[in-house]
């Protein structure tokens, strides 16, 4: 099955391709197709916007994810706005902005959330969700990840996500858990339950 991965993030494409390799799908990047603006108020809405738009444009199955970090002391911010937190344009700037917001804050609990939507040209969609809880450091560590990975230590770990290999991160991470749910649903073919149409 041909599946277009609806993201411009090369790190996500690589992670998704490795995670779903066992399905035998032909996973492709966007190849210049534009993505709609993320105007949803939830991860589910934003992922569906991207997946449905790409599915209708390419007439192929499309996979999109929306993910973010929710910081308890900030009332769940930045959440769906994680990729544009504080108007900052790079991972480093967003990490520094988050650290500034958390200066003198002792409660550093946070969780990563990922929602993956698989959209079909005939209007069907599937939704999968994964979460990972942990704490935020007072400074970045590691070179392997992207986004907020250098600040985030998962519960039960001593290393940040950016200090782990792609395989290690996928095994425990929020996106990995959502992809695991997708894999489980498709290991023996498409899910048999009826799926709602795109709206």
Automatic annotation (TrEMBL):
Enzyme active site? 66 (proton acceptor)
Q: Which Gene3D superfamilies has this protein been placed in? A: 3.90.950.10
Going by the entry's taxonomy, the superkingdom of the source organism is recorded as Bacteria
Cofactor: how bound:
Binds 1 Mg(2+) ion per subunit.
The reaction(s) catalysed by this protein are: ITP + H2O = IMP + diphosphate + H(+); dITP + H2O = dIMP + diphosphate + H(+); XTP + H2O = XMP + diphosphate + H(+)
The record, for InterPro entries, names: dITP/XTP_pyrophosphatase, ITPase-like_fam, RdgB/HAM1
Binding-site positions, substrate = 7-12, 67, 146-149, 169, 174-175
List of residues binding Mg(2+): 37, 66
Keywords of the record, alphabetical order, are:
Hydrolase, Magnesium, Metal-binding, Nucleotide metabolism, Nucleotide-binding
**What the protein does?**
Pyrophosphatase that catalyzes the hydrolysis of nucleoside triphosphates to their monophosphate derivatives, with a high preference for the non-canonical purine nucleotides XTP (xanthosine triphosphate), dITP (deoxyinosine triphosphate) and ITP. Seems to function as a house-cleaning enzyme that removes non-canonical purine nucleotides from the nucleotide pool, thus preventing their incorporation into DNA/RNA and avoiding chromosomal lesions.
- What name goes with this protein? dITP/XTP pyrophosphatase
Q: Which organism is it from?
A: Deinococcus taklimakanensis
Q: Could you tell me the gene encoding this protein?
A: rdgB
């Amino acid at each position: 099955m041909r599946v277009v991965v609806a993201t411009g993030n090369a790190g996500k494409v690589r992670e998704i391709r490795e995670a779903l390799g066992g399905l035998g799908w032909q996973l492709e990047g966007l190849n210049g197709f534009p993505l709609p603006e993320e105007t949803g108020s939830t991860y589910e809405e934003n992922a569906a916007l991207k997946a449905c738009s790409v599915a209708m444009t390419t007439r192929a199955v499309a996979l999109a994810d929306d993910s973010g970090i929710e910081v308890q002391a900030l009332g769940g911010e930045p959440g769906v706005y994680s990729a544009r937190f504080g108007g900052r344009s790079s991972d480093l700037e967003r990490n520094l902005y988050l650290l500034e917001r958390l200066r003198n804050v002792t409660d550093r609990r946070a969780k990563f959330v990922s929602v993956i939507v698989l959209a079909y040209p005939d209007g069907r969609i599937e939704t999968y969700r994964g979460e990972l809880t942990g704490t935020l450091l007072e400074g970045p560590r590691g070179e392997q990840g992207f986004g907020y990975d250098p600040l985030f230590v998962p519960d039960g770990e001593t290393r940040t996500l950016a200090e782990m290999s792609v395989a290690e991160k996928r095994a425990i991470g929020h996106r990995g858990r959502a992809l695991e749910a997708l894999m489980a649903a498709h290991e023996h073919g498409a899910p048999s339950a009826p799926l709602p149409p795109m709206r």
